[in-house]
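Interim report, section 4.2 (structural modelling).
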Amino acid sequence: MPAKLDDVARLAGVSPATVSRVLNGNYPVAAQTRVKVLDALRELDYVVNGPARALAAATSDVIGVIVNDVSDPFFGIQARGLQREAADADLLAIICNTAGSPADELKYLGMLLRQRVRGIVLTGGAPEDPRHQTATARLLAQATAAGTHVVLCGRPAPPGVDVPSVSFDNEAGARALARHVLSLGHERIAYVAGPPANTTTTARHDGFRAALAEHGLDAAATVHGDFSRHSGFEAAVGLLRGHPGVTAIVAANDLMALGVVAALRRHGVDVPGEVSVAGFDDLPACVDVVPALTTVRIPFERGVRAAGRAAGGRDRLAGGWIEVELIVRDSVARPGRGLPAR
Amino acid sequence: MPAKLDDVARLAGVSPATVSRVLNGNYPVAAQTRVKVLDALRELDYVVNGPARALAAATSDVIGVIVNDVSDPFFGIQARGLQREAADADLLAIICNTAGSPADELKYLGMLLRQRVRGIVLTGGAPEDPRHQTATARLLAQATAAGTHVVLCGRPAPPGVDVPSVSFDNEAGARALARHVLSLGHERIAYVAGPPANTTTTARHDGFRAALAEHGLDAAATVHGDFSRHSGFEAAVGLLRGHPGVTAIVAANDLMALGVVAALRRHGVDVPGEVSVAGFDDLPACVDVVPALTTVRIPFERGVRAAGRAAGGRDRLAGGWIEVELIVRDSVARPGRGLPAR
DNA sequence: TTGTAAGCGTTATCAC
DNA sequence: GTGATAACGCTTACAA
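Predicted structure of the assembly:
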């Protein structure tokens, strides 16, 4: 239905090739023919057919971004940065939400492959299941073999695949955070971990445990959530009815920490007077809570932009580490009376 | 580089047409040839070439979503719902952030048009500039003429274009909220509006003013933000140095309300003891703030899903209104001492 | 500087 | 059931 190159060519009295050339500006065109063509283009409201161009030129104007959940600010912010960087290169960004499902991750990788996207940014912690890893590795290898620029953001490359990765130092961050909590004198500390078998979960958990081990301590309790606010709430409810005396709860991310704070408040436990709470990520919401959340910031602005450029094929990306930063606010204080006996 | 239909056909000893048929399952194929083909497909790690298919079949596997900012939970949640609905139909979702810029909106519409996406969901308030409206109208008309399913979400259709629209009753919500504030006895109420010349801004502002008018009142002050937290903060700072005695601040959305609360807290003004604050949208963060934010909820779950299905071409959407709901929490109380004289 | 024509990898219409 | 063979709308040598 819409006008095509031939229509424009006919109206302008030139060949389709010429129209293509003024469109792409990659070949010299006489000034006067150019204006004729331009007029015809406008006259017909011509819009390039992307798929046709992609097929002929073997290159697409789209990059793919895979995240856990765009509505989680942690990923939403990354998605926005990636999309913006894509737009700067006149590319569009397909965004996929896996909701943490390894199967969805593979499914979306496949869908992006068949769109022949120019690049793929895979964000968030990776499932640790070896079968999933090899499956991912295969797809990523296939992608790079096809000339797709693959970039990892916040996860290590699966063994055997050589793709650049922007990594966050989760372990160091968790260690710094735990040390901060310990330095205030806490000894009975509970940990709300992320979903099992996930690289981010493991890195943060390891850092936490390492810090405790330095003091000859172990977690007073460990419970797994799924990084959602709701799961943090549930986790805290669980701790409330089984772990009296816990004076601090460290969550693997801010969303869960927010859930913890809400649960404690609901049960009349004062934060940080009775129990201290800490998170990870430094979401914008951290400063709006009372008490403001002590957490770890991942300044990924620059890294995300570099990832976006690399996915668009504008830069080679060597990959690298993003150092994280302990953010001390008000939700962690000296040990209080701890979780009440129920 | 990747295997194509011909390669598979050759390996399976059949014609490309047959391979295409087993791939699409839209024509009968003998059981045994089917398995030969399936084997060959697997053997070669075949992946359909999306652009080629889109060109030949004149239909794409992608929908486009235009939002203000995915990292704003209000849009992030909508984006997630739309993407999810797309995925259910085996479609991918391109997500575009306009950051409220009308020019970007047009730019992205154009880019989506040339991708020949199957559908487009345009979310958020629309710029009221007539020139922009006619420009939008043209593009939307072009899209529907090309068979693209256009759906509006949270904005009215520009004059002259007949596309379904899922609308939120912003005006009624704002009126209900303002009435609630008034009912507690407030008389000096400031309003933090959204960006000028935007349909959402206008609808909410109108509702607010209508309620005040019912009491023969007018806003004690009106200042415009851009729906961001930061702009809310700035707005409150402005009010603090020029409008003593204001006992309530109503913001056009939650993000700005959060900024207002933060600014008041920073200046030692107690909420709601001295000044009441209200928002709009009912973001998840509303319950984490202290005091929990009184606001208006837009239960758009269902509407967003319907919009997603319509964009994917699975349903015709008649369009309709989503009723909003006043959510009374703790940030609005009886009038206190008001903003201090500086 | 411009035109001709051969692809690009599918789908779809015919025949067989 | 299956195989040729045109499209689909564009890019890009290759000629002119």
